[in-house]
Amino acid sequence: MTLFRAVAGDPGPVLPGARILLRPPTMADFPAWAELREESRRFLAPWEPTWPADDLTRTAFKRRIKRYHREIRDEAGLPLFLIRRADDRLLGGLTLSNIRRGVTQSCSLGYWMGERFAGQGYMGEAVALVIPHVFTAMRLHRIEAASMPTNARSIRLLEKAGFAREGFARQYLLIDGRWQDHVLFGLVADEAAGRGPAGAGAAGERPLGIL
């Protein structure tokens, strides 16, 4: 079964929203991506794994794009960039990773926002777009997410989108060079059914995970 349909020659779906669209990254995104990540470095660092020394180089981005396309092809992940429709500007990214079939039927959600675009509701709209895609087009049963306890904005965003707190994991992920505790969240298909545009307009997003 194919989860993701190629659009305009690129693998993966394009999900349009009121202000943004979600689409897979391409090499043409490199200049905007590198600029946004560099200017947001201090903002992102407390919430992400330590960046490799060459992370913002074109060569590293090319490796990243190859990995993204391989994950989409193998139905193992779905990386998406947030693009503002008004001016085609890159705002951040969202990824569905660790896609599991069989008896699990689940995936993990992570995201990041450029500092200058945080707090404007864009990530709330992105999460609202991706939730029905997971449960309909991808036909999964469950979305998982994890947030550091100090990341109150992301916790509010997830809860507004319908995610329920499910537990606490000690030293769950290696973030900013240290093993960090995380609050665990989950959303299942029957809970999401019938909800409105979950998370739309949520304010003050911080990154959760990394692409």
From TrEMBL:
One of its GO terms (cellular component) is ribosome. This is [SSU ribosomal protein S5P]-alanine acetyltransferase. It comes from Oharaeibacter diazotrophicus. The keyword rRNA-binding does not apply. It comes from the Bacteria. Residues 20-190 form the N-acetyltransferase domain. SUPFAM superfamilies: Acyl-CoA N-acyltransferases (Nat). Keywords: Acyltransferase, Ribonucleoprotein, Ribosomal protein, Transferase. Pfam families: Acetyltransf_3. GO terms for molecular function: protein-N-terminal-alanine acetyltransferase activity. InterPro entries: Acyl_CoA_acyltransferase (IPR016181), GNAT_dom (IPR000182), N-acetyltransferase (IPR051531). Belongs to the acetyltransferase family. RimJ subfamily.
